[in-house]
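Students often ask why we bother predicting the structure of a whole assembly rather than each chain alone. The short answer is interfaces. A chain on its own may look different once its partners are present, and contacts between molecules only exist in the joint model. In this exercise we take two input lines together and write out one structure for the complete complex. Read the inputs first and try to guess which parts will touch.
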Amino acid sequence: MKQFQSFLKKEFYHIFRDSRTTITMMVIPIVLVILFGYAITTEIKSTRFVVFDQSKNSTTQRIIDRLAASEYFVIYKQVSSYEEIETLFRKNKIRMAIVFPPDFEENRQTGTEVQLLTDASDPNEATSLVEYATTIINTELTKDYIVSSVGIKPVVRLLYNPQMKDAYNFVPGVMGMILILICSIMTSVGIVREKEYGSMEVLLVSPLKPVYIILAKATPYLLISLVNILTILSLAYFLLDVPIKGSLFLVIMLSLLYALLALTLGLFVSTIAKTQQAAMLICGIALMLPIILLSGMMFPVENMPWILQQLSNLIPARWYIVALRDVMIKGLGVTEILPEISILVVMTLVLIVLSVKRFKVRLE
Amino acid sequence: MNVIEVRELTKKFGDFTAVDKISFEVKEGEIFGFLGANGAGKTTAMRILCGLSKPTSGEAKVAGYDIYKQAEPVKQHIGYMSQKFSLYGNLKVWENIRLFGGIYGLSDKQLKEKTDRMLAVLHMEDKRDTLVDSLPLGWKQKLAFSVAILHDPRIVFLDEPTGGVDPVTRRQFWELIYQAARRGITVFVTTHYMDEAEYCDRVSIMVDGRVDALDSPSALKKQFNTTTMNDVFYSLARKAGRGE
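Now the answer. The structure tokens for the assembled complex follow.
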């Protein structure tokens, strides 16, 4: 036990004296969450638009007010010609224009038209803008004419994320990515560094048990992951208004299990990599890309071709993200995420067995 | 009494025989020089004796324990210092000492006494709180050697311990080796410096994985009819079939 304590102390000294790395590990999650939360977002917010109102009556005015009052749109100005709209688009002052034809009011009964102009050089944004604006305009139009509508009108209710916030989706995703990257990179680099410096030899000649070396390497990073988990969660909760509907304790325990899995993954990488750079490359590229592309963090797994779906089953992040969403956003309990938990536990055990085997092989 | 006994020890990597049926003994308390050109197999042989590598065949006993079957007690009784690694750079002097003391299971009281005595011998009392990285290389190596024998091992293995240091520091380093030997610690040392070979009680010279010569420096010089260990080494190394 004293052996382990002495070695653990050394690991903490390494980490605290290398303050640059430690601070980086603390700051990266914050930067990523803020980046995903504000910069990289597909949500529409405060988009500037102009109105070319050739009809000028109370209905058009109401629609305009309605649009301007929503958080998605801000009115830039009223214009009086198509040329003006064109110029503003070119100058990038506006992202959308609404044109009411002169006969807007007359044709109300038979079906009138509103023209929406958007900048489709960014097709995704253009589509969303049209969708948002159409919804607002239609609600406003149907308000006073209770049209005896023919056919069936779908009534849509978005469960769990009624405002369609991106953050609900990416916060679990970012946690799935950050935890695995930080834990695996740090553990693998930490162990490979000892090999590179030659200190591993000295340790292996000593009576220190290899399992203590591994445990002592993992402990500090598990603590750092805990800090990261708490930072991301509080940023998500206080800054991005992502609720934690389920039990916070369950969220943290689930994340710690996942961090442990990431540590064993780093341990496994350290038995393969010979240099620190190699370890970093393996973790950085070989782990990050599959996580981003296949974990369901960005692209839904259900839409992937069969073979990629099978591959995504092997990605730990996939199971963690699903379970985390279930607990955080849907508020499910431990029984509902048991399948994911068991998969993560099995993965951890397999990695531990593999790495311990390979670790021993390397001594010979 | 023999503290190391090696019988027909062989290590093969595929078709390549790095160590070819070597046999020798090292007596308790002696300074044993283990020489050989690069690639002659001395590092491999030493790694086997330290338990870092497993032999293909043959047997070896270190401190009375079989290196193959009793690896754990062997570890308790040996110290090891390599040229590549001398202590953790971003740990302070006393933190390094405490780390290795802890690994070898010294009590806090023993550790304190030993640390004080060691730093006094090295004239490094005022360096207790200095980061090892900021010490000169020679100091680091002297400190690393003292740490390697902190737990009073019966044998200490030194792998080219004086690589890259100036002659004065090397001389001081050998003073420490003599002190250790006087305390009864057997010193097993590999080196490239022939003047250091002269300081050893006995030297072995490996050529192509075999031990081609083993005796005291003076006997070897007489046998090869020269006045320096350099010449002894050259006349043996010239016969080497494999290069670097």
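Check your guess against this: DSSP finds 13 helices and four strands in chain A.
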